[in-house]
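Predict structure. Input: UPF0122 protein LVIS_0949, 113 residues.
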Amino acid sequence: MEIEKNYRINSLFAFYQPLLTAKQNNYMQLYYGDDYSLGEIAEEFNVSRQAVYDNLRRTEKILEDYEEKLHLYQEFTARNRQADEIQAYVATTYPHDSRLNRLVAGLENLEEQ
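Output follows.
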């Protein structure tokens, strides 16, 4: 369960990171991206572990609120599932249609940018 939560928070952070403050960005990057402990972050910023913990929880809530309103992550995952399904269908049904396969690959590349 913790792994899924971390994956979700990291994904939301990737989408909504520009909307966060510098402090929120720093704490999130260190904790989720660089695997710092609360104590290490607290020491780095000369604050208490509780302050770091509280900031991280508030930021997680903010990220979830953004997602609830904007649905960027949800729509991204839905598009990826659809693209995977299309790619599998084309590969199975039209394996020799090079133009169609290039078009599907082009769509996939757009999502990765």
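The mean pLDDT is 93.
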